[in-house]
Design goal:
- The protein has about 800 residues and is of the alpha+beta class.
- It folds into 6 domains: about 1-40 and about 160-190, 2-Layer Sandwich (Phenylalanyl-tRNA Synthetase, Chain B, domain 1), CATH 3.30.56.10; about 40-160, OB fold (Dihydrolipoamide Acetyltransferase, E2P); about 215-405, 3-Layer(bba) Sandwich (Phenylalanyl-tRNA Synthetase, Chain B, domain 3); about 410-480, Phenylalanyl-tRNA Synthetase, Chain B, domain 1 (2-Layer Sandwich), CATH 3.30.56.10; about 500-700, 2-Layer Sandwich (BirA Bifunctional Protein, domain 2); about 720-805, Alpha-Beta Plaits (2-Layer Sandwich).
- It is built from 20 helices and 43 strands.
- The radius of gyration is 39 Å and the shape is extended.
- The chain starts with a strand and ends with a strand.
Length: about 800
């Protein structure tokens, strides 16, 4: 939310620096996230002054240039070379002095420097209007009709509007502060100053020529509705002061009537809506809901299907506006509009919130209505806007104010104890100061006793309904920084902190992968529908309602394809050797329910090592990928999970890493070339996907027994024995490793594959593993007898369990 400091000063006077005001507001709960400078003209015409041309002679070395001398005030006369055809003696002109920065319309800024132009010294620039950003003409220099003295700042001549703007991060509970008056109310309490509301004393009804009746059929959705009509208007541009006020807070001026309603909205926090009165059929406004599925075309020319509980502002024949959210295309104010009906209402926050979310319409009005506006300000805001419209567009107030308010919203009644104030704040605050703070916040104090009082909170403070809320109001105005820290801190509750921190796990894992030469990528969650269809999950696609394009029409179901697009892009730029990882989310629609999953994706493609004189380059393989997976598990002391052959059409081959209960933690393998081809990748890509929540669960549940145990290095030597097994092709190394660990004794410390053979020297359908076994005893040197006994046991197990043939 943006708040103009100039605008704020219309309601409360202060001479403190803007930064100090920002600090006060932040400390009171309205966090000022930044302070920006607003300038009507970029640069504020700083360094530009009014000058007078004293001489103008043709340049000796250039026919189109003139050498002038210009009086820029304070007795300074500057030589300036000028190329404008209309420059002449006696003219009052705008001069950009040396060091000034110009912001030309449609061009890049540039700094004026002392220069030599074709041999003549030039100390400034005589400006055209487009060169300083005040217009579009470049026919020649600006010639001023003014009696202002030479040296007068150009900003003063053009009356340039400048402002400072507070950017406030408004929290959802502070709907009361969503306006300049709302912020001024807090400053009233913080600065102990009076608040000056705009006067509406001059309001009067001019005639009764345009009476429009109002009927509220749904008083639950619309507890209060106020309105009046204005006739004989002239729709045109707003005056410069109003346009600059709106521009300073980021709004685009439209016309004088719409700008007036927007002005009052940001002044008071009360949304208003102006209807073209000539479109109100039957001269009657009806506040009601329409039947389910009714259609309505809004100002953005989109036809929308209404729900049965969408509150509408209607005439006798049709809907004119989605109440509190968005106007209709037929009833809006146009250049031809002569008469209007002006609405100022209080709508139920629940109704507006549901409607705005359903139709995905977020407007300045809905932003305030769905948080809660002030039901007691509607008539005041109506008068304020009507007077402003008359001032800007002429016309007459042509009806009495209609105000339907069947059950006035009452103040919140809150019992407050002085004891609880002091206990929760941690410091005793004088009772008079407590009452003063509350009164400055428009909270009335009644039934006061020594022990406490009753607070009457106005309805616009929707966030103050409990004793704790009242105490918070006292404390934020009194000042959090004024409560001294006790030497003996205590608390009623100590939170338990889990050992596992997901962010720390992610950081550790990222550091490990980066140290292994991987690079992190971040890809778009929106992707092509064809990708999901290629893996047979088109029906699970989560479609985007407001698609940017068909290629970005659904949420991704896998990190594969967004990663492949990155790989394709890099390969097209001759970066073929890639090691990438991404922490991302995938999205699924299953049985009409939406699911979001978190994953870690790892990609490997190209060469493991680049070409070098030290050795041949090697292509990446599945073993490089599986090695990375093992490193991840080892990094967090996770016992190697069960590995099973992967049966998934997305992969040519691979492994499924599972926990003891059979739940998959991750998958790794060579991607199917059909999938890589969809992204335009023609070289092999190895891919791994780790279920991030499952990994975090394993990390959090690693028991003391499972953690890596560090011990003294054995004094006794290791022994290596090799074994060659001929196995069926479908038997993987993980099965060999699993059997060996199951039946071997503690002497076998490590098992490794150092060669695999498939060829005509062994039977078809077979493959040969060359395995190495490392044996070691921590207490004594191994003898040949013990080693042979261990190896013979393994041989028998392999033959029995795996049908292995031992090659001699």
């Amino acid at each position: 939310m943006k708040i103009s400091v100039n605008w704020l000063k219309d309601y409360i006077k202060f001479d403190k620096p803007t930064e100090e005001i920002g600090h006060l507001l932040t400390m009171s709960g309205l966090e000022v996230e930044g302070i920006a400078d607003y300038e009507q003209v970029a640069g504020g015409l700083k360094g530009l002054v009014i000058g007078e041309v004293l001489t103008a002679e043709r340049h000796a070395n250039a026919d189109r240039l003139k050498v002038t001398t210009v009086d820029i005030g304070n007795g300074e006369v500057k030589p300036i070379v000028c190329g404008a055809p209309n420059v002449d003696v006696g003219q009052k002109v705008i001069v950009a002095t040396v060091g000034a920065t110009l912001y030309p319309a449609g061009g890049e800024p540039f700094v004026i420097k002392k220069a030599k132009i074709r041999g003549e010294v030039s100390e400034g620039m005589i400006c055209a209007e487009d060169e300083i950003g005040v217009g579009a003409s470049h026919d020649g220099i600006m010639v001023l009709d003014t009696h202002l003295p030479n040296g007068t700042a150009a900003a003063e001549y053009f009356n340039i509007y400048e402002d400072r703007v507070l950017e406030i991060g408004l929290t959802p509970n502070r709907a009361d502060a969503a306006s300049h008056i709302g912020v001024a109310r807090d400053l009233k309490a913080l600065l102990q100053q009076e608040l000056k509301w705009p006067s509406v004393d001059s309001f009067q009804v001019d005639n009764q020529s345009l009476p429009i009746s109002v009927e509220v059929q749904n008083t639950e959705a619309c507890p209060r509705y106020s309105g009046l009509s204005i006739s004989g208007l002239t729709i045109k541009e707003s005056p410069e002061w109003l346009q600059q006020r709106l521009k300073s807070i980021g709004l685009t001026p439209i016309n004088n009537v719409v700008d007036a309603t927007n002005y009052v909205l940001h002044e008071l926090g009360q949304p208003l809506h102006a209807f073209d009165a000539d479109t109100i059929r039957g001269n009657k406004v009806i506040v009601k809901t329409l039947s389910e599925g009714s259609t309505f075309t809004t100002l953005d020319e989109k036809e929308r299907k209404l729900r049965a509980d969408d509150l509408m502002i209607c005439n006798e024949e049709e809907g004119m506006c989605i109440a509190g959210v968005f106007g209709g295309i037929k009833s809006g104010v146009k250049e031809s509009t002569k008469n209007i009906f002006l609405e100022s209402a209080y709508f139920s926050p629940q109704y507006i919130r549901r409607t705005a979310q359903h139709h995905m319409l977020k407007t300045d009005a809905s932003f305030r209505y769905e948080r809660g506006t002030d039901p007691n300000i509607t008539v005041y805001a109506l008068k304020r806007a009507a007077l402003l419209i008359k001032e800007l567009a002429g016309g007459s107030i042509s009806s009495e104010i209609v105000d339907i308010y069947a059950e006035p919203v009452q103040d919140f009644v809150v019992k407050v104890s002085y004891r609880n104030i002091n206990r929760l704040i941690g410091k005793e605050i004088a009772k008079d100061q407590v009452k003063s703070i509350l009164q400055h916040l428009d909270i009335k104090v009644k039934d006061e006793k020594d022990s406490g009082f009753t607070a009457l909170v106005p309805p616009y403070r929707v966030d103050v309904q409990r004793e704790a809320d009242i105490i918070e109001e006292i404390l934020r105005i009194y000042g959090y920084d004024k409560v001294e820290t006790s030497a003996y801190l205590s608390a009623d509750f100590l939170s338990s902190f889990p050992e596992m921190d997901a962010d720390k796990v992610k950081n550790k894992l990222s550091e490990m992968l980066l140290g292994s030469a991987y690079r992190e990528i971040v890809t778009n969650s929106l992707t092509k529908p064809a990708y999901a269809e290629s893996i047979g999950k088109g029906e699970e696609s989560v479609e985007i309602l407001n698609k940017l394009s068909e290629d970005l029409g659904v949420m991704r179901q896998s990190l594969i394809f967004s990663g492949l697009e990155v790989i394709a892009y890099n390969i097209s730029h001759r970066q073929k050797n890639l090691k990438l990882f991404e922490f991302g989310k995938t999205y699924h629609k299953v049985n009409a329910k939406y699911l979001e999953k978190s994953e870690l994706a790892i990609f490997l493609t190209g060469m493991q090592q680049p070409e070098s004189w030290q050795g041949a380059s090697t292509e990446v393989s599945f073993h490089h990928l599986s090695s990375t997976i093992r490193k991840i598990f080892n990094r967090f002391d996770i016992v190697d999970p069960v590995q099973k052959e992967l049966e998934d059409d997305k992969f040519t081959y691979g492994l499924d890493f599972q926990s003891v209960d059979g739940k998959s933690i991750g998958q790794a393998g060579l991607l199917n070339p059909k999938l890589t081809a969809l992204a335009g990748v023609k070289q092999p890509v190895f891919f791994a996907s780790i279920d991030w929540p499952a990994l975090l669960e394993k990390v959090s549940k690693v028991s003391a027994k499972e953690r890596l145990i560090y011990q003294e290095i054995s004094k006794f030597p290791e022994v290596r024995r090799d074994l060659s097994l001929v196995l069926d092709k479908q038997v993987g190394f993980s099965q060999v490793e699993s059997v060996a660990k199951k039946y071997s004794n503690a002497l076998v410390k490590d098992i490794n594959v150092f060669d695999i053979y498939e060829g005509d020297k062994i039977d078809a359908g077979k493959k040969a593993y060359a395995l190495s076994f490392v044996l070691q005893d921590a207490e004594k040197t191994l003898t040949d007898k013990v080693i042979d006994k261990t190896m013979n046991k393994l041989i028998k197990v392999f033959e029995k369990e795996l049908g292995a043939v031992i090659r001699k």
